[in-house]
Design goal:
By secondary structure, the protein is of the alpha/beta class. Helix content is about 35%, strand content about 15%. It has helices at about 1-5, 75, 85-90, 110-130, 135-140, 145-165, 195-215, 235-245, 250-255, and strands spanning about 5-10, 15, 30, 35, 65-70, 70, 80, 130-135, 170-175, 220-225, 260-265. The strands form four sheets. It has a five-stranded parallel beta sheet with strand order 7-8-9-10-11. A hairpin with a 2-residue loop joins strand 5 (about 65-70) and strand 6 (about 70). Helix 4 packs parallel to helix 6 and helix 6 packs parallel to helix 7 (about 195-215). The longest helix is centred in the C-terminal third of the chain and has 20 residues, at about 195-215. The protein starts with a helix and ends in an 8-residue tail after the last strand.
């Protein structure tokens, strides 16, 4: 992250505190989200150097092209980069405040911050030698004032990601909808008792599926971070589980081609 802190781009110019780590003014086009510089200029491509290597930025045991039982190691160990944990999480938890400050979050426009974070993601994967990544929709693009504006933001960031994928083997391992962080989902999304929230969640899932399909994602995950019930005393569980399935099931089979549907079970923590 050292080099990334050294650059600050604006619509007029880019100022640099460390010239070697920054690109020229023409290399950043904020309107198109185009960024051709490096966020990690001092970090080379990570290579396999063997178990005796003393280089902390090397693979000591993982040799991507080594054949093991008839397949290359990279085919056995299919790593992916989680966008949220790697480029958005601020390090806060129930016991403490944020401990991370991302350089792209200095941008006043959250959409510009998203463009930069996406470029950082692809640079990181390229240098690490990883060709899969995973995301929630709200990880990669900011929420707008309306669903239409939010979807437009997601489309713009997806276009940047699609352009960056060209000429590479990089694509999403999976995509999903973030149906838990916004206050509207305080009582769940697919299992919300509020019909408006349920409908909003269904629309959000539909859009997340479309973006996952656009980027060639191998899987779409139903991530039930806040789904479930505090009490089953007055709950028709069969009906509610059917509602949970309706949020993306039928629509998903119409949208997704060559993409598996997955259910993240460990996040259905409130279901009994």
């Amino acid at each position: 992250m050292v080099g990334a802190w050294a650059c600050a781009a604006t619509s007029e110019q880019q100022t640099c505190t460390a010239p070697d780590s920054c690109t020229k003014e023409k290399d950043y086009n904020p309107e198109a989200g185009e960024w051709y510089g490096e966020f990690f200029p001092d970090i080379p491509k990570i290579k396999y150097e063997g178990p005796n290597s003393t280089n902390p930025l090397s693979f000591r045991y993982y040799n991507a092209d080594e054949v093991v039982l008839g397949k290359k190691m990279k085919e056995w160990l299919k790593f992916s980069v989680a966008f949220w944990h790697t480029f958005k999480a601020d390090g806060s938890d129930p016991f403490g405040s944020a401990t991370k400050a991302w350089p792209w979050d200095k941008e006043k426009d959250p959409l510009q911050a998203s463009f930069k974070a996406m470029h950082a993601n692809f640079e990181f994967m390229s240098k690490l030698g990883v060709d899969r990544w995973c995301f929630h929709d709200r990880d990669i693009a900011p929420e707008g004032a309306t669903l239409a504006e939010t979807n437009k933001n997601l489309d713009l960031v997806a276009e940047v990601a699609l352009e960056l994928q060209k000429g590479t083997s990089i694509k999403p391992l999976w995509g999903t909808a973030q149906l838990f962080k916004h206050p509207r989902y305080m009582h769940g999304a697919a299992t919300s008792p509020n019909a408006t929230v349920f409908a909003y969640a269904a629309a959000q899932v539909k859009k997340a599926m479309e973006v996952t399909q656009l980027l060639g994602g191998e899987n779409y995950v139903f991530w039930g971070g806040r789904e479930g019930y505090q009490s089953l005393v007055n709950t028709d569980l069969e009906l509610e589980m059917d509602n949970l399935g309706r949020v993306g099931g039928r629509e998903g089979y119409q949208i997704l081609v060559n993409t598996d549907l997955e259910l993240e079970m460990d996040n259905l923590g409130r279901c009994v």
